[in-house]
Amino acid sequence: xxxxxxxxxxxxxxxxxxxxxxxxxxxxxxxxxxxxxxxxxxxxxxxxxxxxxxxxxxxxxxxxxxxxxxxxxxxxxxxxxxxxxxxxxxxxxxxxxxxxxxxxxxxxxxxxxxxxxx
Length: 118
Hints:
By secondary structure, this protein is of the alpha/beta class. Helices cover 36% and strands 14% of the residues.
């Protein structure tokens, strides 16, 4: 006989019901005319279904992404910013901070939230 211990694993969650996968929503934003962070917020917040009282800063964006139930659009979703490579350097730098906010919110909320620059 083997001297290995017997290990009992917990049961796998019931997957006999219908699959509840939600399709990935893609929000495409045209950045060609952006010159300031306010331009970004004016474009992204309505697309996320953010309430009128939503702040226009990185902390407020993080809170609404990681906290859930603030924006009308629920994960999973991807925000894709087109023409980001043509923006002035200060805006490109700002968008790298936005990328970090999305990454941090994705980790905190354990949700599929993506931010892509193209």
